[in-house]
Amino acid sequence: MKVVVTAVVAAGALAGCGGQTRAGTAALVGGDRITVASLDRTVRDWRGQFKDDPVANQIRANSSGLAPGLGDEESETDMQGALSLLVNFRVADKVARQAGVAVPDGLADRTAAMMNQRGGAGSITLATGLPRSHSRDLARFIATQTAVMQKFGADLSNAQSPLTMQAAQQWGELFQRTAAGMHIKINPRFGQYDAAKVDIGPVVYRLSSAETGTGEA
User: Which of 17, 18, 134, 197 is geometrically suited to a Cys-Cys bond with 130, CB 3.0 to 4.6 A?
Assistant: First the structure.
């Protein structure tokens, strides 16, 4: 279970670009808009479900890079994490097209069944920072990664084999290139994209020239 959740978070990539977004927009992914209202609702639903799911809490606590618990209110980290995944789901669909790989519903179904055998698809989805309603999206994301890596020659029976590791690198590089070409825009409220970390980073507050002392005398 730890491997599944960590792979989902680590494999995803998100590219952002500057520019203004419409009021109420959390992110634009090509022509697809993720609203602030839907993101707020997603994180609220996640928090309500996550606190009552001990399996999800255990998976999250055992997975590197994931906060183990909840604060009193929705945090920017919660919002950033959920938004990153929602964007990544959309990017993955285009990655599959770029790679010339079909991801049939049957493959997503088998992936969901595998998740149910390893802690439960709902609990695994909660551990990543999304509510259970996104279990199917997460299963499709994992199925897409699996299909693309297989095309690149991965030996999925051995995660540590040189072929699998090379395929994972190719998947990551293709994901980055694809995302960068989609002109993804992130609302500055939720931070900025860090290409080196392939993730949404902390909000950066910029001072005016006078406040930084860089203005002309």
Answer: 134
